[in-house]
Every structure is written in C-alpha cells, then in structure tokens.
Amino acid sequence: MKSIQQRHLCLTLVCFFLISSLPAAGSSIRLTGSGSTHCSGRVEILHSGYWGTVCDDKWDLSEADVVCRQLNCGTALSAPHEAFFGEGTGQILLDEVDCSGRETSLIECLAREMGRHDCNHNEDAGVICSESLTKPTISMNPVGELNLDQSVNITCSISTRIYDGTFYLRKIPGHSKMTERPNTNSVTFNIHRMSFDDEGLYACQFKKSVSGQVFRSPRSDTVSLSIAVRLQQPSISLTSPNRGLVWSPEGAEVTRGYRFIFICSINSSYSEGQFFLISSDSTIVATKPAINHSASFDFPVAEYKHQGNYSCVYEVELSTRRFNSTETGAIRVVIKLPLYNVPLVSSVTAGILLLLFVVLLVICLLCKRGRKAKQPGTLVQTQLAARVGSCHEDDREDYVNVCSVDTEKNLKEETVRVEEENIYEEPERYKGHDCDEVAPDSILRKTNEVFFRQEREERQEETSEVEDYYDSVIQPFNEPTLDIYEKQEDIYLDL
User: Fold this and answer.
1) Distance in angstroms (rounded) separating the CA atoms of residues 233 and 217
2) Which of 148, 156, 173, 251 could form a disulfide with 332 if both were Cys (CB 3.0 to 4.6 A apart)?
3) Residue 435 — pLDDT band, cuts 50, 70, 90?
C-alpha cells in the first residue's frame, strides 16, 4: 500500500516538473518588435524565465494561425519571415515548427528539441493576425477648396505592417474609386485634373484575402474634396469717343450729351462668362457676354441721371454652378454742362444787353427831341407875354401898329435864331423900342400855328432818323447772332 502511494507521489512530482518546464498557454507567448501590435509582431515564447525567439524554418500560415488563435487575435493574415519585425535577442528556442492548424498552443506542434536550432536572429518568425487590422488613417494634399483642373493626393495608411493586401479609396456615397496594392503599409492616390464629379467625401479601407477568406479593416475617417473656381479681379476703364471726358480729382467728368463707354476685361481661362456693370447702390446696370475676355457698356448720350460710381464683376457658370469674381474698384462719373453752350449763352446775353441799350438810347433821343421841340414856342410865348405885360395902357392906341409890326418881325427873327443855335437861354429883350410892345390875339394865334407846324415837321424828321439808326444798329447785330445760334444748333444736332 505504501509503495503505491509513493508511486503516485513520484508521478505527481514528475508531471509538475514537466509542466513547469513548458511555457504556459496565453501567458507564455507574445508578439513584439518594431511596428508590432497586440496582434502582430515577432513571435517570442517564455522558457525557464527567459523569452526566446522562433526560427522561420517551415514557418507558414498554419503556425501563424495557431499563434493568433492562442492570443485571441482572430485568423492569421500573414506569417512574415526574416525578422520582419526586427531581430530579437537571447536564445532561439524553437526551430522547424510544424503545426496542423488545429492546435491550441504553439508548443503542441511538432518541433526540434527545445533550444536546439541552426538559425540566427535574422530568421526570426512573426505573425500578423486579422484583429491587427486597425482603422486606417487618411490625409489629403493640398487641403481646403481646390481649383478646377487641379491635382490632389490622398494618402491612406495602416499601422499593421502588411504588404500583400489592398487599399481601397471610396467616395461616400458611391462605389470604389481606386484600388492599390502597396509595398508598404501606406499608399497615395492621385487625382489628376479634378472636375465637379470628383467632389465629395472620401474614406480608405484595407482588405486582405487569406485562403479564400477576405478580411477588412474598419473604414477610415473621411476627407472632404470640394472645388472652387477662383476668378481673378477684372479691370474697368472709361473712354469717350467724342472727347467728352476729363479726369479730375472728383472722378471722370463727362460732358452732358456726349457719349461715354465703360470697358470691363479679365484674364481668365474661363472665357465663356459674362460681365455685370454695377452702380454705386449695388444695382446691376447692364449685363454683357464676354467677347475676347472683355465687354463694352455704351452710354450714347450722357445725362445727369448717369452720375454715380460704377464697377465690374465677372461671372462664369460651370456644371450648373455659378462663380463670381471680386468686384473691381469703382469709377466715379460726374456729368457737367456742355462746353458749346457757354459761347451760345454768352452771345445771347450780349445780344439782349445790346438790345436793351439801343432801346434806352432811342428813348433818350425821343425825350431829348421832344424837349427841344417844345422849348422854342415856350420861350417865344414867354417873351411875348413879357412884352405885352410891359406895355403901358395909356400908350396902347398910339403905338399899336408899330408894336404889331415890330413884334411880328422880331418874333420870326427870334424863332429862326433859336432853332439854328439850339440854345435854351432866355433871349434878350427886343431893342430899338422905348415902349413895351403889345401883341394882338391874331398875332399870337399865327405864331402858335407856325411853331406847331414846325414841331410836327421836326418830330417826323426825328422819327425817321431814329428808325434809320435802329435799322443800322439792330440789323447787323441780329444777323451774326442768329447765324451763331444756327451754327451751334447744327453742331448739337450732328452730335
């Protein structure tokens, strides 16, 4: 009985030592090295408290699949050789490992005796498991809005060092855009001469096929690809074919009634656009299609309503979308009085002033002649009244004949003298008489008739002289004035 118990004890101790000398499942294997993850890297096992590597002799997907399953990392996608994840250190514990693929641990596979090998660390074996397919990263160069016909590069990469898979660049929504089988764990997609059909969101995904089974990584984040047509700022200029334009600090001074033209132009590869002429209140004044990259806006007759600031904008329509350029600097238009009206107004003003002067002159002459015609009769009658008043009542009968004769004679002589000399001084008293003359009523009536007749004749002569003077002055003035006006009117009509 005692011997049976001793045997069981010995078997238990032997099993304990044998089990303790083997690496424990799950905790006795690891993946490490350059670029390694939890499910990809250089294979190392634990033996006697030390970690050692595995030689890549006979190393294949079957052995790698056992390691991935042992680490709960899914299915093996690759079984890299030749220290793919870098050379390890320490001992090489396993060599010529041969698994059926159904084992749960690597130590269950056939292999050379632990520690026996003919390899170097440059032959260290590695694995890449399906669970190592992490989400790829994506980047775009250049970033932001792109010009039409511009090229763009989109780069996709994955942290897992697997080279025999395929990267897909997908447009969302949509189907696959591009595929690439990289030599490294990243790939760059190049899109040449972008069009509006290329706009959208893009994402990357990595795929790996193993024994007819396809493994996919999660889809990457997205990048946005958008196109903007950047049009340069057009230029604007102003001309006047009939020289009605003068530039001043206030802006472009255009003569009223003259023609002026705005010219908008642009240097752009998009030639089938249109120009907008915009006023100061942002109102579109006119629209013209671009011909040879420019357009003209014609104003045949400048009016005061055309005053204001003007600028140009260029617009193109591409794939049902419209793109506008920035607005040009503004040109200020000021409408001024026509130059040809200045001499015309001056001539009319001068003519009116001259006409007023002639009218005043005629009025003055008429007044002067009237005074001259009335003064001789008044003077003679005054003198006669004085003479009559000075005659003595007692001598009237004796000298009536003498006074009558002398008075009539002296009256005629005095009248002739006053008219010839045109003087207004009071005549001297008649000499050669010792008494005052007395003029009878018949003599006074006769004298008045003579002077009234002379006055009518003188007025007729004065009227004739004024009419002749008026014709000689006004007629030469009217003809050139009318001629000037007609010429100016012809010029205006020609414009």
Assistant:
1) 48
2) 251
3) very low
The candidate with the shortest Cα–Cα distance to 318, out of 197, 211, 477, is 197
Which segments within 61-151 are labelled E, that is strand?
A: 76-78, 92-94, 126-129, 137-141
Taking the C-alpha atoms of residue 195 and residue 225, their distance in angstroms, rounded to an integer, is 11
Residues 6+ apart with CB under 8 A from 160: 37, 40, 128, 132, 133, 134, 185, 206, 217
Contacts of 245 (CB under 8 A, 6+ apart): 238, 239, 252, 253, 254, 255, 258, 260
Query: CB–CB of 160/185 below 8 Å?
Result: yes
Amino acid at 218: P
The number of residues in the chain equals 495
308's CB contacts (< 8 A; 6+ apart) are 279, 280, 281, 332, 333
pLDDT (tens digit per residue) in 413-428: 555 454 544 444 444 4
How many whole angstroms separate alpha carbon 495 and alpha carbon 489?
Answer: 10
User: Looking at this protein, which amino acid is placed at residue 406?
Assistant: D
Query: With contact defined as beta carbons under 8 Å apart, do 40 and 125 qualify?
Result: no
Strand spans (E) along 365-453 = none
**Could you tell me which residues are beta bridge partners of residue 203?**
170, 222
Give yes or no for a contact between 377 and 477, defined as CB atoms under 8 angstroms apart: no
Residue of 176, 163, 226 lying closest to 204 (CA atoms): 176
Rounded to an integer, what distance in angstroms lies between the CA atom of residue 331 and that of residue 315?
Answer: 20
Residues sharing a CB contact under 8 Å with residue 225, sequence separation 6 or more, in sequence order: 140, 146, 152, 154, 191, 194, 198, 199, 200, 201, 202
Look at residues 297, 328, 310, 148 and name the one whose alpha carbon lies nearest to residue 233. Answer: 328
- With a pLDDT cut of 90, the percent of the chain lying above it is 22
Non-local CB neighbours of 273 within 8 Å, separated by 6+ positions: 231, 266, 289, 290, 314, 315, 316, 317
Instruction: Please give the C-alpha separations between residue 68 and each of 42, 46, 101, 159, 479, in angstroms, as whole numbers.
Output: 12, 17, 11, 18, 120
Write the single-letter amino acid at 37.
Answer: T
Only one residue has tokens 């294997």, namely: 29
Enumerate the H helices of 53-133 as residue ranges. Answer: 61-70
Cα–Cα dist 387/403, whole Å: 10
Q: How far apart are CA 176 and CA 448, in angstroms?
A: 134
Instruction: Find the range with the poorest average confidence among 159-173, 348-362, 480-494.
Output: 480-494
Q: How far apart are CA 254 and CA 304, in angstroms?
A: 10
Which is it for the CA torsion 64, 65, 66, 72, positive or negative?
positive
pTM above 0.70, yes or no: no
Pairing of strands 92-94, 137-141: unpaired
pLDDT tens digits, one per residue of 7-48: 544 444 434 333 333 333 344 899 998 888 888 899 999 988
